[in-house]
Amino acid sequence: MTPARVMPVSATGLGVAEWSVWTTTARLVVTEESALAEATAVVFEQLAKVDAAANRFLAGSEVSRLARGTGTPAAVSPLLAELIGVALAAAAATGGAVDPTLGGPLLDLGCPDLAAAEPTGPTAGPDRPQPSVRRRTSWRDVRLDGRMVTLPAGTLLDLGATAKAHAADRCAVAVADRFGCGALVSLGGDLRAAGPPPDGGWQVLVQDGPDEPASQVRLAGAAAVATSSTLHRTWRQGGTVRHHVLDPATCRPAAPVWRTASVAADTCVRANTWSTAALVRGHAAERDLRRAGVAARLVAADGAVVRLGGWPA
Fold first, then answer.
1. Do residues 80 and 109 lie in contact, with contact meaning Cβ atoms separated by under 8 Å?
2. Which of 87, 92, 114, 309 sits between 20 and 30 A of 246, alpha carbons compared?
3. How many domains does the chain have?
4. Considering the domain boundaries, does residue 60 fall inside one?
């Protein structure tokens, strides 16, 4: 992680810090400017621990070491056990649409370390033929018993979506609890607010790029918004642009029915679970989101906007 750029906003009494992490921007806003420096250190520490546990691009991370295992039960840190539990719960809630065992198929499709990859531009048009990928396991093959994890040999976990969302939840709650102030933590498309909000609530712009449809929402108290996208985190393979949201049924990038899916919920994990599932489920997303009882905003491939479940304004 690069050093934080601290930007106190004296006119409003808020303190803001931001820095680069995981191919995106981390942003911390607190309602007590005097707490900003210590709160930033808390968030830095939390994110570093998640990185060491769940970054599949780090050879020394826990998930990378698990992938080199023989398929026998292995002890993991309490944090990684927590992150795997969160990922398995997301898989169960979505009927497997959000699956944490897709690290291997992503590598087979040429997914690079996106922190070092060149931008490719958005995916567009119908789903093109994809190269075949090797057989893989599914989330149902992962066993978690306390801190003991059993994976089929060679399984590389991809916890990126739920781990980042869970990190946003952990960080916002930790700052609010420790300093008794309002805290908003944004990790790219994952945003969580905790503690007492500023006057007028948290004003959040939901927009996946300068040319994309925008929505200004107000969050009061503990609330979260997550946006998943097929427009970013892309790479080229054989002249074709791929994106990172795979359909577990095919191990291929989900068809770009939706350019972006945003969900508002009580936690960032829940919001991210259903925003990711919406991209995977494609035309069935509206039905699934209604059944899940979440507020959502979908942007279709042609730019049309669909709002569901009382999307906040």
1. no
2. 309
3. 1
4. yes
